[in-house]
Amino acid sequence: MERTYIMVKPDGVQRGLVGEIVKRFEQKGFKLAALRLMTPTEEHLKQHYKDLAEKPFFPGLIKYMTSGPVVGMVWVGKGAVTTGRKMLGATNPADSAPGTIRGDFCIEVGMNICHGSDTVENAEAEIALWFPEGVATYEKSEDAWLYE
Ligand code: DAT
Ligand code: MG
After folding, report:
1. ipTM exceeding 0.95?
2. How confident is the model at residue 122 (pLDDT cuts 50, 70, 90)?
3. Which of 96, 109, 118, 119 to mutate to test the pocket of ligand 1 (most atoms within 8 A of CB)?
4. Known catalytic membership, residue 48
5. Residue 16, pLDDT score
6. 112: Cβ below 6 Å to ligand 1?
7. CA-to-CA distance for 51 and 62, rounded, in angstroms?
8. Domain chopping of the chain, boundaries
9. What architecture (CATH level 2) is domain 3-134?
10. I need a surface site. Which of 48, 124, 133, 134 has the fewest CB within 10 A?
């Protein structure tokens, strides 16, 4: 089953949006496989965002992401990566549709409250980076009412 790495960024934690974001993924029907509040190092975040290292906003991004704790989680389900991205909304909240997390709760691209993996391959790499000890696997009876 597909897995995605979702992270509440420091502004989302500070603004008390952890529960709201967890709630949306739970209500959708995805299964929680890992969740932890963490204060990652600069090196860890540089690894997470290594594809953006050459971008002009990279130093600001690292500063923002190390400004407080984040909440990392792994959600499992059919289409979790693509659907997770849709649930977050466009990168720039100005372009995020109402009803999406970014569309509903934030204003600027530099403080867009959440992260979601963009491909299955990147999701697996991010899960390995943030949860090197592994994540939970378990049966959920609800699945019988979610999947045909
Ligand atoms: P996403 O988070 O939607 O996957 P991304 O991977 O391209 O977007 O960029 C990672 C984060 O970097 C993004 O959530 C916010 C920040 N960012 C992206 N583009 C930016 C820009 N033009 N100015 C400032 N920050 C930006
Ligand atoms: Mg990205």
Report:
1. yes
2. very high
3. 109
4. no
5. 98
6. yes
7. 13
8. 3-134
9. 2-Layer Sandwich (3.30)
10. 133
